[in-house]
Amino acid sequence: MMLSPDFVILTAVGYVGLLFLLAYLSDARAKTGNAGFLRSPIVYTLSISVYCTSWTFYGAVGTAARSGLEFLAIYMGPTLVFVGWWFLLRKLIRIAHSQHITSIADFLSSRFGKSSRVAVLVTLIAVVSITPYIALQLKAITTSIQAVSVAKGGGTDHLATLDEVTLALGVAIGMAVFTILFGTRNVNAREQHPGVVAAIAFEAVVKLLALLAVGIFVVFGVGGGIADIYARAVEAGVRIHESEPFGSRWVAVLFLSACAVICLPRQFQITVVENANEDHLRTASWAFPCYMLAMSVFILPIALYGQSTMAAGSNPDMFVLTLPMETGHDALALFAFIGGFSSATSMIIVASIALSIMVSNHIVVPLALRAASTADEAGERDIAKLLLRSRRISIAVMLLLGFLYFWLTQGSDALAPIGLISFGGVAQLLPAMLAALYWRTATMKGALAGISAGFVVWAWTLFLPSFATFSPVVAEVVANGPWGIRALRPEALFGMEGMDPLVHSVFWSMLTNVTMLLCGSALTSQTALERIQAALFVDVFRRARSFKPRILRGSASTSELFFVAERVLGWSRARALFDSAGVPHRQTTPQQGVPADFIARLERELAGSIGSASAHILLTKAIAGDAISLEEMMQIADETQQAIEYSHALEVKSQELHSTAQQLKEANALLKELHQQKDEFLSQVSHEVRTPMTSIRSFAEILMAPDELTPEQRARFITTIHNESVRLTKLLDEILDLSALEQGKRDWENVPVDAEEVLEQAIAVCEALARKRSVSIESGARAGSCIVPADAGRLSQVFINVIANAISHNDATDPVVHISSRRCEAGYVVDISDNGPGIPAMYHKTIFDKFVRAEPDGMPDSQGLGLGLNISHKIVGKLNGRLELTKGVLPGACFRITLPTLRAAEIVAVP
Amino acid sequence: MTDILIVEDEQAILESLEFILTRCGWSVGVARDGEAALQAALRFQPRLVLLDIMLPKRGGLDVLKILRSNAALASTPVLILTARGQQYDRQAAMDLKADGFITKPYANGEVVDAVRRILDSRPRPAASRAHA
Fold first, then answer.
1. CB-CB: which of B10, B19, B32 is closest to A691?
2. Residue scoring higher pLDDT (A600 or A94)
3. Fewer C-beta neighbours within 10 Å, C or N terminus of chain A?
4. What is the interface size between A and B, counted as CB pairs within 8 Å?
5. pTM over 0.80
6. Tens digits of per-residue pLDDT, A319-375?
7. Which domains does chain A have, with CATH numbers?
8. Contacts of residue A697 in chain B, CB cutoff 8 Å?
């Protein structure tokens, strides 16, 4: 099959017809309130991919072929913004929704006191910056038509004889007509175009599928897999690693593309203005980066394969088309052409709609309002009609400008540099955007100074040099500076030579832009309206939803207001608005009582159609004579500010109170628990004290009548009294000991102690008790001298307590206590085990608690108070060691004491 | 037949109680934990039980509850002796129809008087009187 130019162009026209049908049907559906899928996060995400223009479709392969991985930066900037900075986008959307923002110019103008000057400046910058971008799309379409059709050399068609410029003019005219039909069929309330969005989303799918199809064809069809392509490229001598991927130029491109995805008028239009639901951003924040990943995945293989197989000198920007054609796959080439065509048309449509809104709202309408000196005169013209007409004309002018730029800069073959020029231009809006969102005291004059200074530097350093191939004068300026002043050479300002022109331009323009913004804002002050708007923007998330600042006070007659509203909104919408607010629209006598709320609402509605600056001018004019005095404005501004701050302070206060209450609650619960523990402890102590006191008192009373007793009885009773007194004393000692240990601080100094020696002494002390109970103490493996940081007395107390427990609780017929020690990684370990009844399982958890006596059944007369193990446990804890119940060599209980040892160095250090 | 069953796990207290009560002419049996107390009560059929509350194996209040639910022992008077003087122990004991509550440490006379008052208010069983 041969692709004739006629056939290709007819296909493109047919495709456009399809898009138009799609848009028309979607609009019709949206109008019946049946938007459904059209308002889904997926469609939103797909429409954001209007970012991927023909530059990324064709140009990415070209960039990859010329500069290696640089093309990735174009995708990574937006990815960083959507993944990492989505909160910034969310704030943008929230503000735009609450303020009825129609464009990026409207956004900045509204923030900086509804300033017309800001709006006009931003609009002009957008027009100038986007012109090269539109030219780029024209160039892409033109080149691709030629590549697909003329490459085959079919000379019979009359279109084939057209030169590039005529073709581009034809394309420009076609696109203008198409966009006018598409985007300006009516003036929408909020400048939302569901039909256009649907068509853009459809085109997003088409361009992705087309690029993937070519990619799969190249890699798996003719290329034979990634590895083969790579090998072939190496063989063909393609310099794969020639360019440094992460250099300063790479960073500059990354930065510019991140700016662009926020500041490009078409991105603002799609991401912010056309957004139907803030939550869609959640989906877009991951889905859009995924889309770009899919778009970029085959770029490198296509570029490598193209470079290694195509004839030298063939245009790498067109590899996506020429590779399928080389192998005779014309259908695939046609599909790829449609994909590229989709990328270009979607950009042209959205960009020119966004620009036309800006031009008509911020330039044409204010001029018309100014021209009409009285309201009556203005009334003769229907503003709605004026808007439509001015938008149509602006679209045509935009495309004409694009065409002119294309015509003037024909010399350059590559697509990408043109795109980066545009990016550099719109990036000048970023500092003001960030200030609008986060810097409350940024002033209108600061923003104006920053934007215009940055723009001038950009125009001088990047925009102007792009004409060098066309104009010898420009070439001369680039080479030697204006009037021979070399310090002002556009690509080497102040002698900064040898730098990449893009990096050079980004550096100087951003430096001047930010400096002017900061200094300008510091040196000038805000007007009342600016302060109000700044508060509304910066604190958009803090503001109570019901809070509406009143800015215009009205005693204008409602009929005058209705007249204004009707001119902008049309009779039916104006009528609906007045009815819904309960304001009569036929009242002719100027009476007091149009609510200020209603005027504010009317202003927002008007702003939705003509931008906030124009709406403000229009309404101020309608209620002229009622202009609020400066003091009143200042007061309102302060009230607004205070109300916002006060509500924020309240919020913070209530959070603090809540958390304090929570803390008190927790503290109270803890105190209650401690109180209960204390009660239990006292009750236990009381019981433990009363028990020996009982027998002491009882025997003492018996002994008071000594004559009834035998001497043996008397001796026995006195011994009991003595033993019980000793027990009582021991109890009191232990309680005091425990109390001291529970104070938290240890009342001794840890010094190097030979634990083994202490253990030896403790065993010796227990020998007497063991003999009395006929218990034999067995010595197992021993560690040998081992130095630990401890107090010898306290450590001895622990050993004696545990050994004595093992002896006295052992009722085996042949009672044995086994003691072993060793060194291991954890330190010094002593195991004391016995063949007694062991600790019943029910006590395993509480054995180290106070007053727990794990008496095995039938053990008579155990004198334990249940404090010994608790004290030992606390002492070992303060020695940084562990006392635990474990399984030992004998069947009964086994207690293990683990103590950290001192390393040799520490022994020397501690005296 | 035994006059008094002493249930007490503290050896010294048990010894002193045994001494003063025997000296007054009553016959005395002993038990050192809750389980032993129940068995001894069934075996001795005592006229009075002196019962500690903090006991191994089975607490004194638990023992009292079982005694009260046993047909043969339900009417046996029980005198609680305890080192836990809290109000709720006393209340729990009274709810289970204990016949007296003495807090340790006590005067010997206190115990003797209480025992005598209870034993005197109840006629001695015939078999036991003959034995005496």
1. B10
2. A94
3. C
4. 66
5. no
6. 888 888 888 788 888 888 888 888 888 888 888 888 888 888 888 877 777 766 444
7. 5-28+43-359+414-426 (no CATH), 442-525 (no CATH), 546-628 (no CATH), 634-742 (1.10.287.130), 751-909 (3.30.565.10)
8. 105-107
